[in-house]
Amino acid sequence: xxxxxxxxxxxxxxxxxxxxxxxxxxxxxxxxxxxxxxxxxxxxxxxxxxxxxxxxxxxxxxxxxxxxxxxxxxxxxxxxxxxxxxxxxxxxxxxxxxxxxxxxxxxxxxxxxxxxxxxxxxx
Length: 123
Known about the structure:
InterPro entries: BfmA-like_N. By secondary structure, this protein is mainly alpha-helical.
């Protein structure tokens, strides 16, 4: 029995024989009663705001292939950025930081002071 509809009476609908057979096969596949299957179908169309006459659009396989193509495009762009921008920049930064510390040059004052000492010692 259909839950919530046990006490409801049956109503007849006039449906062509081939359509009725196809609907009964569909109901068996859905493993529900004909009334509940029809109710589920109506609720589906109302909930999604579509008409049975409308096309839902591209199939899932088509959408999946589209998404895969877009993802592959994004991956290619990221690899290109990594190859042409990130790796060279990282290499330049590493070479800058790995350079030996510059040799300490004596201050100019020290040179002058040494020269004065040397000239004083010579005298």
